[in-house]
Amino acid sequence: MNDSLSAFDANEYDDQIKRTVPFYEEFYKQVVELVNIQFHTSIQWLDVGSGTGKMAEVAFKNLSFIDRFVLCDHCQEMIEIAKERLQGNPKTEFVHQSLFDVDVHEIFHVITAMQVLHYYQQKERISAIQKCYQALRENGMFITFENFAPNSEMGLNLFLKRWKSYQCLQGKAEQECDRHIARYGKDYFPIPVAEHLEILRLCGFRACEVIWLSNMQVGLMGIK
Q1: Are 1 and 27 in contact (CB under 8 A)?
Q2: In order along the chain (224 residues), what is the average pLDDT of each group of 10 residues?
Q3: pTM, whole model, 2 decimals?
Q4: At what angle do helices 76-86 and 54-62 cross, to 10 degrees?
Q5: Which CATH number applies to 10-152+189-223?
Q6: Domain segments of the chain as ranges
Q7: Among residues 213, 201, 90, 208, which one has the least CA distance to residue 151?
């Protein structure tokens, strides 16, 4: 059963996503490095669309100053997997809730959204990021890793072929690769990098930067 927006069942998500998205593990390393540079005392962290809890696991393994880590996901099965993964860590909290139902203000030092926002059309995406902005403290950091849309049709065709090649090299059947690529623009909605940055500025972030980019994925940061 899969009541998340992902193409993958919750129980197979971690394995399948690594075979589908190049440099997937690197996303989490980049987040941890950035947080470690920006913060030095106890922090509260919210991970929206937290899935199987990988962001929390990597954060706790590498950072000693996390005081509270809230995992928020609308898929109960994902929440249960995350609870098992984190094995009763007393600094974790689990919220079975859509991002659009988050209604807190100026609580968190860090908010992450890993491969979440591309499922939303523009108005929903802006609304979701505004929710994150409101939940951040002043000088808080929002970090998101997303798919992005190339700037030209030629670029898109080339990048999609490259993406298919990667998946095939990971052992996925060609038909499976084709089905996943066919979801582009239908089940999830990538936007150009410039538009990603413009939405962050529109939502009020005073510093908006690309922190990582490769293939068709981009890491972005906004500071409140």
Answers
A1: no
A2: 46 79 95 96 97 96 97 95 94 95 95 95 96 98 97 96 95 94 93 97 98 95 98
A3: 0.93
A4: 20
A5: 3.40.50.150
A6: 10-152+189-223
A7: 213
